[in-house]
Amino acid sequence: MKQILVTGGTGYIGSHTAVELQNAGFEVIIVDNLSNSSIEVLDGIEEISGIRPVFEQFDLIDKEKVDAFFGKYPNIEAIIHFAAFKAVGESVALPLKYYRNNLVSLVNILDAMDQFNVPGIVFSSSCTVYGQPESLPVTENAPILKANSPYGNSKQISEEIIQDTLVACPKLNAIALRYFNPVGAHPTAIIGELPLGVPQNLVPFITQTAAGLRNQLSIFGSDYDTPDGTAIRDYIHVVDLAKAHVVAVKRLVESKNKKPFEVFNLGTGNGLSVLEVVDAFERVSGQKLNYKIVDRRPGDVEKVYADTTFANEELGWKAESTLDDILASAWKWEKKIRGIE
Ligand code: UFG
Fold first, then answer.
1. In the chain, pLDDT over 70 holds for what percent of residues?
2. How far is Cα of residue 126 from the mean position of the Cα atoms in its chain?
3. N or C: more exposed end of the chain, with fewer CB within 10 A?
């Protein structure tokens, strides 16, 4: 069985990916420092897939621990590197926290890949690298614009660090997956997103408002140049996203990648406005949502959604879930963790 290291594997996207990797017959080793996730997630992964992944708790910015880890597990064939901080607003207030964590961990991993002969890495990137694209849907060839936040910049710099490393170490290969807006939870509601504190993202804020944890959803801006005035995003089910990682890992371990560094957009190709998401949530959940329109949120782009042609054709992968599936799974998860019938 091929061993895959999943960094950040107890986190939101990492845990769903661990399930799909195990379902596909890979052996998963998770490394996580549990800074933004909990150990119980391992029980959830085991409950869904029937297998408990190997787990090692340490911080990937500690180079000695990273090297010791790869010495202990010499048969790892590929890495999926999720572990990173991801709160846009916090990154503006604490840029060095973001650069240290997101960049140093990547450097340590790439160094170890070279030293311990781990040939492939799948890297979690973001559509944030495109900023506000000039033309939509956005393709992988769209220019990278100046990042709006240290978080976004850390993703851009990470992609550059990987590319520079591949030039110097031709035995290494990488796939960067640029996520659009990952949302939803596993359909079993055994794992899902667990935001710390007040959620910054739309869907967890909606489900927490419906569950009574938040009084009111603020919709950030209704004067955008979009049909209903609210901003447009491409919301992709986290399980669809997880499955794309399995395809990407297979591509690396089977040496089917066509270039040492490949980039794929992971989205649905459908742009949806905030109000469309709110309406769909009300319909799917039967809950009336208390919301108000407020000013735009600084740093938000007006509209972005993916051209998925390259990912669909080259990976043979396509997002399957509908918006209703996504919101139903998010609501089922919220109700489960809040004990709502
Ligand atoms: N929104 C609201 N109210 C809220 C939260 C969000 O109206 O309470 C709106 C936002 O203004 C935006 C849309 O809902 O128009 C989606 O916002 P999210 O915060 O859910 O997602 P973003 O598109 O802002 O951010 C996501 C990821 C980031 C990443 C960014 C760009 O969460 O990590 O995409 O890639 F940086």
1. 100
2. 8
3. C
What tens digit of pLDDT does each residue of 55-66 get?
Answer: 999 999 999 999
129 CA: nearest ligand 1 atom:
35
The first and second tokens of residue 164, run together, are 């520079």
Distances (CA, A) of 287 to 49, 280, 332: 32, 10, 13
Using an 8 Å Cβ cutoff, are 238 and 182 in contact?
yes
Model confidence pLDDT, tens digit, residues 310-329: 999 999 999 999 999 999 99
Is-catalytic flag, 151? yes
8 A C-beta contact, residue 129 and residue 155: yes
DSSP 173-198: EEEEEEE-EEE---TTSSS----SSS
Distance CA(146)–CA(153), nearest Å, equals 8
Burial class (CB in 10 A: 0-12, 13-18, 19+), 254: exposed
Phi-psi region of 8 (alpha: psi -120 to 50; beta: other; left: phi over 0): left
pTM for the whole structure: 0.98
Structure tokens at 324: 């209703």
Kindly compute the dihedral angle of the four CA atoms of residues 232, 233, 234, 238, in this order, to the nearest 10 degrees.
-140
Residue 299 CA: nearest ligand 1 atom is 24
* Closest residue to atom 32 of ligand 1, CA basis: 201
For residue 160, what are its two tokens? 């550059």
pLDDT digits (tens, 9 = 90+) for 159-183: 999 999 999 999 999 999 999 999 9
